[in-house]
Specification:
Length: 409
C-alpha cells in the first residue's frame, strides 16, 4: 500500500513539474477565449491565451502554487495547481444596475462623449514615449522571422485631417533593432506559393513596426465605432477596471447578416476615458475585409486560397503621473491559412509595451525622416537581443526561446 501511495505522489509531482497546456473556454458557448491572462502567484510573468484559447504554463509548479485566470467581462478564477485541469470554463459577469441610476438608451452616446473628451483624457499636450516592440512571423509552428525593437513614439494633437475622427498623430523612431530570419523557411514559403506569387514577396515590407501607435490608435477605433452603420451596440453594465468603475459597451459587426467580429470597450464612468479595447473576430472567413476584389480574383486565378479567421487584438491603457491615460499594452494575434502546393498555417503575433515615463515637449526631436520598412532593414544596425535591459519589455517565454534556437540562417 505504501508503495502505491509513493508511486502516486511521484506521478503527481512529475505532472505538476512539467509544462502544462490549458484551454480556456466560454462556459455558455464553449468557444475559446483569446487574450485571457494566466498568472502563477509569486512568479513575475503573465501569460495570455492564443487564438484557440490555449496557454502553456512553463513554471515548475508545486502543489502549493495558485493560478489566477482573469478576463475582462468574466468572473476571475483562482485555482490551486493540484486542481488545475486541461480545460477551464469562464462565466460572464452578470451585471445588475441599481434602479436609481438612469443611463442613455443609446450606448453610442457614451462613445461620442469619449471622443469629445479625447484631448483632456488622452492627449492634453504633445509627448514622446518609449516602446518595446516584438513581432513573430510563425509558419507551421516555426519562426520565419523574429524581431524586437526599442522605439520612441512622439504623439501630438492633429489638425485639419480630412478624416473626421483623426485628431491625433504619431511618429515612430527606432533606437535599437534585433532581427533573426530563417532564410530556408522563407524560400520554402515562396516556393510553396509558386513562381508568380513568390517572386512578388518582399519580407522587408511585411513588418508592422511602422504601425506602432500611441493613443492615436483611437483614431481608427472611433472611426470604426461611430461611422460604421453595420455595428449593433449593447450596454452591458459597470465593471471595475484597474480600480475604476467602467462602462462596458459591446459592438457586434455584421455584414450580410453575418456577425464577423465583436468589439468591447470600457470607458471610465465619470470622465469617459478609454481604459480597454478588445476586438475578437468570429470563425467566419474575413479575407474579403483584408483583400480587395481584384487581389482576391488574381490569387484565385493563380490557385492560391487564403483564409483569415478569428484574429484577436487588445489595447490597454494606464493612467500617468500627469493624470491622463496613455497606451500601456497592445496585442495582435492574426492567423492566416494559405493553400496552393501545400498548406501554410501562418501566425502573425505583434505585441508592444509602452514605458510609463513620458517626455513632454512641443515638437518632435530628430524625426525628420519617417522610417519606412525597406529603409530600416537596409540601414539599421542589427544588435544582439536587449529586452532584459528594459524595464518596459515583454516577458520571453520558453516556447519562444525554443523556436528562436531552431531557426536556420
Amino acid at each position: 500500500m505504501k508503495q502505491l501511495l509513493l508511486l502516486f505522489w511521484i506521478f503527481l509531482c512529475a505532472n505538476l513539474s512539467a509544462q502544462m497546456t490549458i484551454s480556456i473556454l466560454d462556459s455558455a458557448t464553449q468557444l475559446p477565449l483569446a487574450g485571457v491572462s494566466v498568472a502563477v502567484f509569486n512568479y513575475p510573468n503573465i501569460h495570455f491565451t492564443d487564438i484557440e484559447g490555449r496557454s502553456t504554463i512553463p513554471h515548475m509548479l508545486s502543489s502549493k502554487d495558485t493560478i489566477a485566470i482573469s478576463y475582462l467581462g468574466y468572473q476571475r478564477q483562482l485555482i490551486s495547481a493540484i486542481h488545475l485541469k486541461e480545460t477551464i470554463l469562464l462565466s460572464q459577469h452578470r451585471f445588475v444596475l441599481p434602479p436609481v441610476l438612469i443611463y442613455p438608451v443609446n450606448p453610442k452616446l457614451y462613445l461620442r462623449r469619449a471622443f469629445d473628451s479625447f484631448y483632456v483624457n488622452h492627449l492634453p499636450a504633445p509627448y514622446s514615449q518609449r516602446v518595446f516592440y516584438r513581432e513573430e512571423f510563425i509558419v507551421n509552428d516555426h519562426y520565419a522571422r523574429f524581431q524586437e525593437m526599442d522605439i520612441e513614439v512622439y504623439q501630438f494633437p492633429k489638425m485639419n485631417d480630412s478624416r473626421k475622427f483623426y485628431i491625433s498623430g504619431s511618429y515612430p523612431k527606432v533606437h535599437r533593432f534585433y532581427k533573426k530570419d530563417d532564410s530556408f523557411l522563407m524560400e520554402d514559403i515562396k516556393t510553396s506559393l509558386g513562381k508568380i506569387v513568390g517572386k512578388q514577396i518582399n519580407y522587408n515590407y511585411l513588418s508592422g513596426y511602422s504601425y506602432v501607435k500611441g493613443v492615436n490608435m483611437l483614431n481608427f477605433i472611433f472611426t470604426h465605432l461611430l461611422e460604421d452603420k453595420n455595428i449593433e451596440y449593447k450596454y452591458l453594465g459597470i465593471e471595475n477596471i484597474k480600480g475604476y468603475n467602467s462602462l462596458h459597451i459591446q459592438g457586434k459587426f455584421y455584414q450580410d447578416k453575418i456577425n464577423y467580429s465583436n468589439i468591447d470597450i470600457y470607458l471610465e464612468e465619470n470622465s469617459y476615458a478609454v481604459l480597454h479595447v478588445s476586438i475578437q473576430a468570429t470563425d467566419e472567413n474575413l479575407t474579403k475585409q483584408f483583400l480587395d476584389f481584384k487581389t482576391r480574383a488574381i490569387l484565385w486565378l493563380l490557385g492560391v486560397k487564403i483564409d483569415v479567421k478569428k484574429y484577436y487584438s487588445k489595447i490597454q491603457f494606464a493612467k500617468t503621473k500627469q493624470g491622463f491615460w496613455t497606451v500601456d499594452d497592445f496585442m495582435l494575434l492574426l492567423p492566416v491559412t494559405i493553400k496552393k502546393k501545400r498548406k501554410l498555417d501562418i501566425y502573425l503575433n505583434i505585441g508592444y509595451r509602452m514605458s510609463p515615463n513620458l517626455f513632454m515637449h512641443p515638437s518632435p526631436i530628430d524625426y525628420s525622416v519617417y522610417q519606412e520598412n525597406q529603409y530600416l532593414f537596409d540601414t539599421q544596425k542589427i544588435v544582439t537581443r536587449f529586452s532584459k535591459k528594459l524595464d518596459y519589455s515583454i516577458p520571453f517565454l520558453p516556447a519562444q526561446q525554443d523556436r528562436l534556437e531552431k531557426m536556420k540562417y
